[in-house]
Amino acid sequence: MTNDDIEFAQNRLELISFRIGEQEYCVDIMAVREIRGWAAATPLPQSPPYVRGVINLRGAVLPIIDLANRLGFGVTEPNARHVIIVVRIGSRVVGLLVDAVSEILTTTADAIQPTPDVACDAVKRFVKGILAVEGRMISWIVLDQILPDQSLEEAA
Hints:
Elements: H1 3-11, E1 12-20, E2 23-28, E3 32-37, E4 51-57, E5 60-66, H2 67-70, E6 83-89, E7 92-98, E8 100-108, E9 112-113, H3 121-126, E10 127-133, E11 136-141, H4 150-155
Parallel strand pairs: 2-11, 5-7
Antiparallel strand pairs: 1-2, 1-8, 3-6, 4-5, 6-7, 9-10, 10-11
């Protein structure tokens, strides 16, 4: 192995990319537990609009987040082609409803461009950086921001 090979291996990131509408996003593959087909969720009363409800995942209750809605793109009308990406966010496991999973990307941290300065801080809250791959722009989602802070919820 050359020094360049060793440096690439040490800085390597594996991301899983997915689509919401025409836009591509990605998350760190280490947070992904599984990918499954869409299953109708049981709604929860008084839940935020982006929470579709819960499903039974091998005996565990799994909350389903409509990622398009959470990112401000409106409510998803899921069908059999939609998928749920089961991810660990801190100590919680949730399902992210997305249109489709695209591919596994292998890159390095220095290939990730910073989130552009825009008028809205919400963009930087949800997007860790931008990855340019073969003419496509893929936004890296900050999973920690998908769910509100529990301590803030409990204080309210």
